[in-house]
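Summary of Year 1 activities. Much of the first year was spent building the evaluation harness for sequence design. The harness presents a backbone, in tokenized form, and records the residue chosen at every position. We chose the following record to illustrate the format because it has been used consistently in internal testing since the harness was completed.
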């Protein structure tokens, strides 16, 4: 039996990621204040407080090492002369799940605090990352969910466009 609420692929992490995508795209009772089930319920407005949330931020842990996964990418921008460029490479341990297909291939968007949009190469583990005012970067990576053994869901939030 899978650990997802609505999916049972045999991969617990993939099933949770699918539940998150389903809940986020559709914008139950639990005993935990923080966790995947509570975050999904909060996203869906099944809690007592005001909603307005659109994202369940996640931290993923690599199989074999049990270490948190850090994603990398670069934002693109347009120069004043109309040519295109990119920022320095950015990194994040925190992601918004954009999609996951039947083969457990997931698209994740890097989330960063507005204070960390650049120069975040100091991140050694998730506790180094500023979680106040997380925003979307527009930087997406594709991962194989089968490579992960654990997912930590952070409380559901409303993210802003960081680009």
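For this record, the design step produced the sequence shown next.
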């Amino acid at each position: 039996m899978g650990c997802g609420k609505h999916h049972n692929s045999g991969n617990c992490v993939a099933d949770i990621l699918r539940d998150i995508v389903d809940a986020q795209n559709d914008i139950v009772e639990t005993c935990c204040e923080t966790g995947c089930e509570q975050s999904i319920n909060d996203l869906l407005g099944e809690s007592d407080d005001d909603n307005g949330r659109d994202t369940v931020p996640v931290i993923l842990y690599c199989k074999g090492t049990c270490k948190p996964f850090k994603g990398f990418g670069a934002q693109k921008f347009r120069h004043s002369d109309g040519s295109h460029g990119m920022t320095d490479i950015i990194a994040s341990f925190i992601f918004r799940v954009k999609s996951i297909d039947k083969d457990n291939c997931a698209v994740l968007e890097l989330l960063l605090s507005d204070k960390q949009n650049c120069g975040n190469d100091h991140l050694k583990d998730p506790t180094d990352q500023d979680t106040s005012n997380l925003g979307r970067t527009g930087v997406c990576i594709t991962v194989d969910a089968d490579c992960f053994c654990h997912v930590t869901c952070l409380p559901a939030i409303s993210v802003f466009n960081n680009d």
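The longest strand covers residues 134-144. Quantitative recovery figures across the full test set are reported in Table 2.
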